[in-house]
Amino acid sequence: MIYEFLSSTLGTILEMFKSGGVITYIIAIIGIYGFITSIEKVHYLRKISKISPPFIMGTVNDAMEKGGSLEALKSIGKYKNPISKIISEALKIGYRNKIEVEDAMERVFIVEIGKMNRGLGTIKMIIEIAPLLGLIGTVLGMWYTFKALGVDASPTAMAGGIYIALITTIAGLTVAIALLPLYSNITSRIEDEMDKIEIAKKMTNWRTAVMRIKVEVESEKAMEALKKSEGIVKVKEIDDSKANIWVAFKPSMLEKSISNIIMEKCNTRAEIIESKLMQ
Fold it and tell me: Within the chain, which residues score under 50 in pLDDT?
């Protein structure tokens, strides 16, 4: 019985397509394209929304205790979603100045928003244009009907025109009605992701940061240069096999990266051994 029902339904649909003509085929093609695009977009948004900002920040904080910023970068690199990418850029403060970090975060934001919105305009256009194509089919069907009235006022000829009008109208409305909930779901998911991005930006307003640095030559001069720089809170010499300078700074006030400060003032390279950020 189910087979007979499906076979009968499929036969009816195919007959409607044949009777509806070119307009029906056009509506079907754009409808299928819109449906496939919508499903792909929903799948992509579901994929990137699985990991929440608090979870990522918890991972960052745990990694920060073990190995600092570099360990945190490695720990969230596997997620590959907009939140993790923006937080990754925020973790580079100290290696870069605050303006460079903010610019990098903004670039990531623009790229990721572009990915999320890609194809959305096409889906919206299909939703809007499908009923209009159905309306064109309706007009054509009524034209056939009135033409039949003028030439041969037979019920069969009139029914054919009305049938075309109904089929194209049904096809256009069906596509629009089917795609509208998907479009609403996609836009809602995008808004949620944008809210998460804003939360991530606020969560990465690091209050303080500390670094262990190794300077091969002129370490005293490097320390003096750091002490005089904007955003630096404290500098001291340390006895460590890997590093010889410890520096604390306020990330929100850092006008130059730590390496650049030392390079500009001392003309020597500084190797950042470890960087830790705190909220």
Answer: 5-6
